[in-house]
Amino acid sequence: xxxxxxxxxxxxxxxxxxxxxxxxxxxxxxxxxxxxxxxxxxxxxxxxxxxxxxxxxxxxxxxxxxxxxxxxxxxxxxxxxxxxxxxxxxxxxxxxxxxxxxxxxxxxxxxxxxxxxxxxxxxxxxxxxxxxxxxxxxxxxxxxxxxxxxxxxxxxxxxxxxxxxxxxxxxxxxxxxxxxxxxxxxxxxxxxxxxxxxxxxxxxxxxxxxxxxxxxxxxxxxxxxxxxxxxxxxxxxxxxxxxxxxxxxxxxxxxxxxxxxxxxxxxxxxxxxxxxxxxxxxxxxxxxxxxxxxxxxxxxxxxxxxxxxxxxxxxxxxxxxxxxxxxxxxxxxxxxxxxxxxxxxxxxxxxxxxxxxxxxxxxxxxxxxxxxxxxxxxxxxxxxxxxxxxxxxxxxxxxxxxxxxxxxxxxxxxxxxxxxxxxxxxxxxxxxxxxxxxxxxxxxxxxxxxxxxxxxxxxxxxxx
Length: 464
Fold this sequence. Notes:
Layout: H1 5-23, H2 30-46, H3 52-72, E1 89-96, E2 101-102, E3 107-118, E4 121-124, E5 128-133, E6 143-152, H4 162-167, E7 171-185, H5 190-209, H6 214-223, H7 231-240, H8 250-266, H9 271-288, H10 293-311, H11 318-331, H12 335-338, H13 340-362, H14 372-394, E8 396-398, H15 401-408, H16 412-428, H17 430-455, E9 461-463
Parallel strand pairs: 5-7
Antiparallel strand pairs: 1-3, 1-6, 2-3, 3-4, 3-5, 6-7, 8-9
Helix pairs in contact: 1-3, 1-11, 2-3, 5-6, 5-16, 6-17, 7-17, 8-9, 8-10, 8-13, 8-14, 9-10, 10-11, 10-13, 13-14, 14-15, 16-17
């Protein structure tokens, strides 16, 4: 039996993914791993090119590579790592290495530890700590802090594997209550600092041209700043099944990207020109969020879907998806099992690429102004493929989601386009931005009211 090169690539990638998956649950002795490598090499030596024996050897080697990559991602917790001092009260210095996560009642800082004081002696250390702090005073990206607190190892919270959730971000220590003191400012990461300052300015402008919660909602649409949205609005979105429009993931980006493509095509642009504009938009979105790994992954997934819809070659996108998954897992293998966003991104992409054409045929009876039919077909396809995972991961099923998306989704691309124009004009001259923001406020209010009305039904969201 002979195999094509594309088949060898696909099966090798799937073997790597399977190896990462197994290692996520079972620690395998390195002696066994070395034995598998030797066996794989022997099989390859005796296998013929493109034969079944060669395929088995390749799959075994890639499987071992996946296992090895996961096990190498687990850090060595020694006295040079901050997590070594968990369950102790310590004083350590570190840099805020990412944009602060501002919540309604607290701020979460991701601190890159640099120095710890033990028995009056300072030691150089490494590792990340998640520090929970009051809303005031607020510190910024690249600030150097001295932190006095009781370190703790992350623990699961009921059915939520919080420890694994943080581990995928390389965080193995948390500080729930501590005393923070500003000691300096780190002058690295100039580009990221500039991007976050621009983002802060955009958030300020959106707050000036729109009232709340519309301003926070627009921030969620344009740059993923959903954490400033009121909890009741987030609950309405969850119950009505439209959280994906503000959730920063490949799920969100793929749906919005295809919807915007449909809008541009409906306005008369060619599919290729619409593709170029949306890819530039995705690049801008990734940049304005500060290049976090999760958003980069989401941007890649969105671009892959656009490629398949633009080129009309969904059947040839399989290897691209498999290779993309392998590359992402090489950077961070822990996202395969413990990152719901990663899983939802791939499932949504599979739905959009493979099921959307069938869904479009089923929706031929719908009118198609501004290419709304294709936009709705992609959304329902993504919902169909992601609902089982949402049900399994979160124990809920939004019964009202198809109707909610039918009513809401057609307005999303236009709101994003007008909202972006309004914020941009607001940067130049605030009154001009406020003038353009009136139709944006109207459209965002419509979406908020629809979500609230549909979420009010007792049967809209089933807890299972």
